[in-house]
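We now fix the convention by which a protein and its fold are recorded. Here is one such record, which you should read through line by line:

>
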Amino acid sequence: MKRPRNAGPVRDPFEAVVSAPDPGAIQALVQAALKEDLGSGDLSATLVPSGQKTRAELHLREPAVLCGQAWFNACFRALAPGVQVRWLVEERAWVEEPGIIAEVTGPARGILSAERSALNLLQTLCGTATETARLVRLLSGSRTRLLDTRKTLPGLRVAQKYAVRCGGGYNHRMGLWDAVLVKENHIIACGSIQVAVDRARKLGKGRWVEVETESPDEVNQALDAGADVVMLDNFALEDLRAAVGRIRGRAISEASGNVTEALLPEIAGTEVDYVSMGGLTKNLRAIDLSLRLT
């Protein structure tokens, strides 16, 4: 069950490129957002004649990575049949100068009703992508890549992880179902790292196994057990550097725990494969966007 020392290149479970979520996932999130906002109906929109058409411009007011066009479009299409959204900037593009980035034309009532939900989703995803891109720049020139975590906003897991990819980061496991992460409480409950990893391997189905370690001894145990990924939790820089050296060639290394922006370049200096930051998706700031009728 263990990974042999001469097993060849280590498979990197984080290398897969994540495309945009499937339309069904986008629709499910959009419908939930609209239901939350509309309730029994948009009272303010009834002030506008039902057959009135309008045109609106989407203004970006600060530099950002554009992310979330599919969610923005879906909000308007759900409430404004025949609406047209024309994007002036491509998805994933870094937009440096404030200005108009899209035009929306169609039924006025539907556009007004969908506006807030569309902006909420777009601002949040742009914020996630932009923060990711900013931190990825701090790792430029190193082998270390930036990972997200499961610390996402409820209901926005898939969308935020897509935004992380738009910003140049990588995705950790999507949830509890697609990989095994053996944490400290799992180790206590199972009795040892070896037992936990052996049980994980029996699950099969190609799932990769990661072990969270808190000491050099646990790193050795994780390697001996054949972990695919070894997480180095709250390691001091010199201990992190030494652990990365032991891990290389036998598993993927990941630094985690109280990672700050200031520490990122120093962590990258240890040549760890990945560094994960929960703040990418939980401590975000929405990008300043507004929709104005013309």
